[in-house]
Amino acid sequence: MNLLYSKQMDEAQEKPYYGKEIDSDQEQELIQIILSKYRLEPVTDELRKKITCELQEAKAAGKISIPYQVVMRKSPSPYHRSYIEILLDTKL
Question: How many CB atoms lie within 10 A of CB 38?
Fold first, then answer.
C-alpha cells in the first residue's frame, strides 16, 4: 500500500486561520504518524474510514486544526498502486 501526503501551501508562509495560529509543521507530522500506522494495510474504503475516524478524533482533541480531506485513489491498472491521500487546505 502506498500512502501519500500532499502539502499544498508554501512552507515559509504561516497565516492565521479564524484568528488562531496553526502550527502546520507539527500537525503535518501528526498526520504522517497516523498514516504510517496503516501503511501495510490494503487500500480499501474501510481503511479510508479508519484513517478519517482517527483524524477526526485528533481534531476533536485539538491536535489538528488545519482543514483536510481524505481521498482514496484507486487505480484500475495493475501497474499502478492504489493509495490514500490527505489533502490540506491551500488557503491557510
Answer: 17
Cα dihedral across residues 39, 40, 43, 49: positive or negative: negative
Q: Identify which of 89, 73, 70 has the alpha carbon closest to the alpha carbon of residue 81.
A: 73
Whole-angstrom CA distances from 61 to 2, 64, 65 are: 27, 8, 10
pLDDT in tens, 54-75: 999 999 998 888 888 999 988 8
What is the DSSP code (8-state) at residue 24? H
Between the CA atoms of 14, 15, 17 and 23, what dihedral angle is there, to the nearest 10 degrees?
Answer: 10
pTM: 0.70
